[in-house]
Amino acid sequence: MGVPTIRTGSGWLDRLLPEGFPTTGSTLISGPGGSGKPLIAEAVVAGWLHAGGSVVFMSLQYPSTDFVVESMRRVAGVELSNYGDRVAFIELAPELDGVEEPVGRHIKANVVFPDAWDQALNLAYGVVPGEGPGVLLFASAINLLLFS
């Protein structure tokens, strides 16, 4: 038996991935600006949520989670509030020395520090269920950490 997969529910992406998107391992989506990386990633997130999985968003380039919520709504047609118990956010907070006490499913952390990275992920994984295909970490602009 092969690697477990999900269907994204996005016709164009499901045609490109006839076997489905793999639910194990890591996938890096890279390319120049304007090449559609968020479009692909958000289609995968939508499929993941529809399959019963949870998502931890760590979008390091945005100062608040509002952009991610709005982008998922506009690009993928997904209202994240409908998946409230299965969605968590890690926000980059460079002013911190580590991790701030979570507020619901929102965690502020200076993930530049490896210990804060680990702690933030562990906290986020602890507030979402691991059902369905499991927990997907959606991390964008992690290259920012390389330049910090």
Can you give a write-up of this model?
With 148 residues, this protein is an alpha/beta fold. Helices cover 33% and strands 18% of the residues. The strands form two sheets. A four-stranded parallel β-sheet has the order 5-4-3-6, sandwiched between helices. α2 packs across α3. It starts with a strand and ends with a helix. The relative contact order is 0.18. The mean pLDDT is 89.
Keyphrases for this structure?
globular; two-stranded antiparallel ribbon; 6 strands; 18% strand; 148 residues; single chain; four-stranded parallel sheet; alpha/beta; 5 helices
Structure at a glance:
The chain has 148 residues and is of the alpha/beta class. It is 33% helix and 18% strand.
Overall shape: it is globular
Strand order of the largest sheet: 5-4-3-6
What is the mean pLDDT?
A: 89
Give the H and E element order. Answer: EHEHEHEEHEH
| Total number of beta strands | 6
Structural class call reads alpha/beta
Rg: 15 Å
Tally of separate helices: 5
Bin the helical content. Answer: 25-40%
In whole angstroms, the N-to-C terminal distance is 42 Å
Q: How would you describe the oligomerization state of the chains in this entry?
A: single chain
- Which residue ranges are poorly predicted, with pLDDT under 50 across at least 5 consecutive positions? none
- What share of the residues does DSSP label as strand, in percent? 15-25%
Largest beta-sheet characterization: 4 strands, parallel
What is the element layout, followed by pairings?
Layout lengths: L4 E2 L4 H6 L4 E2 L14 H14 L3 E6 L6 H11 L10 E6 L13 E4 L4 H14 L7 E6 L2 H4 L2
Parallel strand pairs: 3-4, 3-6, 4-5
Antiparallel strand pairs: 1-2
Helix pairs in contact: 2-3
